[in-house]
Design brief:
Length: about 550
């Protein structure tokens, strides 16, 4: 009957030769695969190859600290009360007994002293946020210095820049929530910056604070932004960032067998996932130890916020320190006209603040325009082989660090017994001078390292063996580098600078070259000219020297 039915209706689906599921989990996986096709998805992605280099762990630290922030933040949200209603404190911390404070501050005190494990979770949450921003900045610098932002990863670079920017502001709002004297000073700082905006500053201040400072709405609004809005956007950007990383694959450093079309490394499953899981718990453990031994933001030492007080040595978390530095070193200039006052001492730093970040974020697009490079790049550069880019990045870092010094000028003055005015003037002058000096020094340093690599390729490495020649001369014997090392030192590209077209065409008609093209040609010369790269050794030079002619 069965045979006749098959013959009548056509060939039937062959019976599966797969053994029955070994257990319930395998059966559940089979059920899911029949509806979602997870086996095909896993087969194509779980064996994806990832390069093995220590610098890729920087991005993993960003991911793991973000997970830690979310987990600890959920726990803290269960006990925190985002309200500025006044209460009288009668908790276990005796020095503040009977003091009037906001519910936000009182609930944070309860988390710290009455909730089991609350203080440790608060410390882990705060330390994870600090490490998260630091890891993002260092990770972006790794991407920058190796040229990993080039096509097709420009959009992912902007996603990373957006995550850094949002992380900085979410951290600022997070440590402002307890409504202690330190965080209140930071909120007052922000109010002054908003009021400095011409025409609309007062309206923005009233809208944000719900009235005169400090108002009654700032903590609830910060809570909503800190817990829901910014983390939601960051989660979306993070998912998009990881999808693009997975789609474009990781960059890899030059080496034998590595090309623009392949990836040499370890498979995602099981090797990479096992290492990643262990590294997550290592990061969690290190942050937990930091939180247990080093207290950050001890709100009980500052007391509740009062508008008529300012805490001593008030410092924001390090990632907002450069904005503090801009305010502190800017002269208190004011422009008065038509009955209005423009506070340049606050407004100018407010405008420079995003420019400091935008300069480094937009650099990849400037480099792509200057070099007119439209190819895909999957091989990472050694920083020394891109002197202009490396020098620019070093100059930006020097500017950032200089502004951090300006933001902590009071602490530096008191701890090192220096004049605070001298430190301020140094930062003012250094803001324009130091990055230029760092740029030229770093560029010359990279050129020197390129010459050293060329010398190693041609003459080999120093062996430490001293040999005396028959005529009495002492020389050091050099040993040739292995082929793998020779390949790594000579695999980088050396593009030629763009040249302007001839003054006249083949018909003798003068060509019109606009200022944009002239500027591009000059910048291209600065990137790829003789002053920015040392010519790689040729095979003829290497053969001549290694064959014994003039080589010890």
């Amino acid at each position: 009957m069965s045979t006749a039915k098959s013959a009548a209706t056509g060939a039937s689906k062959p019976a599966s030769t797969r053994a029955k599921p070994a257990n319930k989990f395998e059966a559940a996986a089979d059920w899911t695969d029949g509806r979602l096709g997870i086996y095909t998805l896993a087969k194509s992605n779980l064996r994806k190859i990832f390069p093995d280099h220590w610098s890729f762990m920087l991005g993993e630290i960003c991911l793991y600290t973000f997970i830690i922030i979310i987990l600890t933040g959920v726990y803290l949200t269960l006990f925190f009360k985002p309200s500025m209603a006044e209460v009288v404190y009668h908790g276990p911390y005796a020095p503040l007994d009977g003091i009037r404070m906001s519910e936000a501050y009182a609930s944070t005190m309860d988390i710290s002293f009455e909730v089991r494990g609350g203080l440790l979770i608060r410390q882990i949450h705060h330390w994870a946020a600090i490490v998260f921003v630091a890891a993002m900045l260092v990770h972006m610098m790794r991407v920058f210095f190796t040229g990993a932002f080039r096509k097709p990863r420009e959009i992912n670079w902007l996603f990373g820049a957006g995550l850094l920017f949002l992380g900085m502001f979410d951290g600022f709002m997070g440590y402002s929530l307890p409504d202690d004297l330190l965080s209140g000073t930071g909120i007052r700082f922000m109010e002054g910056a908003i009021l400095a905006v011409p025409l609309v500053g007062t309206y923005l201040q009233f809208f944000l604070y719900g009235g005169q400072f400090p108002g009654t709405d700032i903590v609830p609004r910060f809570f909503t932004i800190h817990v829901l809005l910014i983390p939601g956007i960051m989660l979306g950007l993070l998912v998009a960032h990881l999808i693009l990383v997975f789609y474009h694959k990781h960059t890899q450093f030059a080496g034998p067998g590595r090309t623009e079309k392949n990836v040499v490394g370890m498979p995602l499953m099981p090797v990479y996932m096992a290492k990643a899981g262990g590294f997550f718990f290592l990061v969690f453990g290190v942050i937990s130890v930091m939180s247990a031994v080093a207290t950050v933001n001890p709100i009980w030492a500052y007391g509740p916020y009062r508008p008529d007080q300012v805490s001593t040595d008030a410092q924001p978390d390090w990632y907002m320190g450069f904005s503090e530095g801009l305010i502190r070193v800017m002269p208190g200039w004011e422009i008065r006209a038509w009955g209005h006052t423009l506070n340049m001492g606050v407004f100018v730093p407010l405008m420079v603040f995003p420019l400091v970040l935008a300069v480094i974020w937009l650099y990849p697009f400037v480099e792509a325009w200057v070099t007119n490079d439209k190819r895909e790049h999957h091989i990472a550069d050694r920083p020394r082989n891109a002197p202009v880019r490396t020098a620019f990045g070093a100059a930006w870092i020097s500017e950032y660090l200089l502004l951090l010094i300006g933001g902590g000028n009071d602490l530096i003055a008191t701890h090192l017994h220096l004049s605070i005015n001298s430190i301020t003037y140094f930062v003012r002058v250094g803001f324009f001078v130091v990055p230029v000096l760092v740029f030229f020094i770093t560029k010359r340093w990279c050129m020197g390292l390129q010459r050293r690599d060329k010398d190693k390729v041609l003459h080999g490495r120093e062996s430490g063996v001293i040999k005396r020649l028959p005529h009495g001369e002492f020389i050091e014997v050099h040993q040739q580098l292995p082929q793998e090392r020779l390949y790594t030192l000579t695999a980088h590209e050396q593009p030629q600078p763009a040249e302007l077209p001839a003054a006249v065409d083949e018909n003798g008609v003068a060509r019109k070259v606009g200022p944009v093209e002239r500027t591009r040609a000059k910048l291209s010369e600065s990137f790829y000219g003789d002053g920015s790269q040392v010519a790689k050794p040729t095979s003829e030079e290497h053969h001549e020297i290694t064959s014994g002619h003039g080589h010890h």
